[in-house]
């Protein structure tokens, strides 16, 4: 497993800061290991993103967390309480510690917005006046003041998800589990829902676990990311580090849509023959990316280099730069070691005969 350096002290074995702790969780369906030794901590107050291809084990992980699926082996703790051996009755109160939001909102269409939000409290036995007061408070929090008496069919997708969030928060859960919650929304609505989740995370210190196939979601609001592949964690770390220097092939492939890629017509013209120009990828992120990289390259390589493609993104307020540059083939090795000394990660991708 590739672990990125977090810059934080290592978590102790029994940290009280962990809302969820999975240890070597395994779940197999016939010959398929849906979860193959997953160990994972969700720390109090953080937003953790879990990404993975279809079939990586994300849904199985969710079902194990809310007790709908029992692992074959391993342990799952919710706020320090081991759940794998619990009976259905013992699980109920712990299940309520996890609020869930879903891709298709799962609202009751025959009930009003306030009734939907108050439903978990009704199940907990709250008196009507008290639960409607709590629902009103939550509707204010999610920006739906005035919609208490509306029915779900009268709301937009984004508003429905806001109701879903309010309902998930009704019983003050320790963790909000988001299962592809923005996957059915358009980009603008997605951004507004993500802004709301971030706002709630900051205001209430709410811990959020995001399960998603949308890299943008993790990029925009998560603190840490865990990459699942075939039931195993292949990479994890702070989002800006993993997204700037993905190590596992799965992660590189998942991120290909949101990281600059060498334009296809240039990629197709690359050859292994060392001639003409070398095409290099250059990744630089965090503190190293704030230095005068290109000025230094220009000083050191007066013979010139060409910027072919790329740019600088900002993730978690860290600069994340990814560039493709072309240099005369005979200067490539020296440029690689020079740029690496400046903190960049450089790779020679191949050569092109002439200006591509
Ligand atoms: N009840 C089941 N019976 C048989 N195989 C299952 C069952 N549930 C999951 N699997 C298998 O386990 C693996 C992990 O599935 P899971 O649904 O957890 O992946 P996922 O990451 O959620 O995928 P997706 O993003 O497509 O929902 C897959 O190979 C799947 O076919």
Automatic annotation (TrEMBL):
Record domain ABC transporter: where: 20-255
UniProt-listed CDD domains: ABC_MetN_methionine_transporter
Record SUPFAM superfamilies: ACT-like (SSF55021), P-loop containing nucleoside triphosphate hydrolases (SSF52540)
One function term, GO molecular function aspect: ATP binding
TM segment ranges: none
Pfam family of the protein (one): NIL
Keywords for this protein: Amino-acid transport, ATP-binding, Cell membrane, Membrane, Nucleotide-binding, Translocase, Transport
Protein family (similarity comment): Belongs to the ABC transporter superfamily.
Annotated protein name in UniProt: Methionine ABC transporter ATP-binding protein
């Amino acid at each position: 497993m590739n672990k990125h350096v977090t810059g934080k002290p290592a978590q102790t074995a029994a940290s009280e800061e962990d809302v969820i702790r999975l240890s070597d969780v395994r779940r197999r369906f016939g010959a398929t290991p849906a979860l193959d030794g997953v160990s994972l901590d969700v720390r109090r107050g953080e937003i953790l993103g879990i990404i993975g291809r279809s079939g990586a084990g994300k849904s199985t992980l969710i079902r194990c967390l809310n007790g709908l699926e029992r692992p074959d082996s391993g342990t799952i703790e919710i706020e320090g309480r081991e759940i794998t051996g619990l009976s259905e009755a013992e699980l109920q109160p712990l299940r309520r510690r996890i609020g869930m939001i879903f891709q298709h909102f799962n609202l009751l269409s025959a009930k009003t917005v306030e009734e939907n939000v108050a439903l978990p409290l009704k199940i907990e036995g709250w008196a009507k006046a008290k639960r409607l007061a709590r629902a009103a408070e939550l509707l204010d929090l999610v920006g739906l003041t005035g919609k208490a008496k509306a029915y779900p069919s009268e709301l937009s997708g984004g508003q429905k998800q806001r109701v879903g969030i309010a309902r998930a928060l009704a019983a003050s859960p320790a963790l909000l589990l988001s299962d592809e919650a923005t996957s059915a929304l358009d980009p603008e609505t997605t951004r507004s829902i993500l802004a709301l989740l971030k706002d709630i995370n900051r205001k209430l210190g709410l811990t959020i676990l995001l399960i998603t196939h949308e890299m943008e979601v993790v990029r925009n609001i998560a603190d840490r990311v865990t990459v699942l592949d075939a039931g195993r964690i292949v990479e994890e770390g702070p989002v800006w580090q993993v997204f700037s220097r993905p190590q596992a092939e799965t992660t590189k492939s998942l991120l290909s849509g949101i990281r600059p890629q060498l334009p296809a017509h240039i990629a197709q013209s690359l050859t292994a023959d060392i001639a003409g120009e070398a095409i290099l990828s250059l990744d630089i992120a965090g503190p190293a990316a704030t230095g005068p990289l290109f000025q230094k390259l220009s000083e050191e390589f007066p013979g010139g280099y060409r910027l072919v493609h790329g740019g600088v993104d900002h993730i978690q307020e860290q600069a994340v730069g990814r560039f493709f540059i072309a240099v005369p083939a005979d200067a490539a090795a020296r440029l690689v070691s020079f740029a690496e000394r400046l903190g960049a990660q450089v790779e020679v991708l191949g050569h092109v005969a002439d200006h591509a």
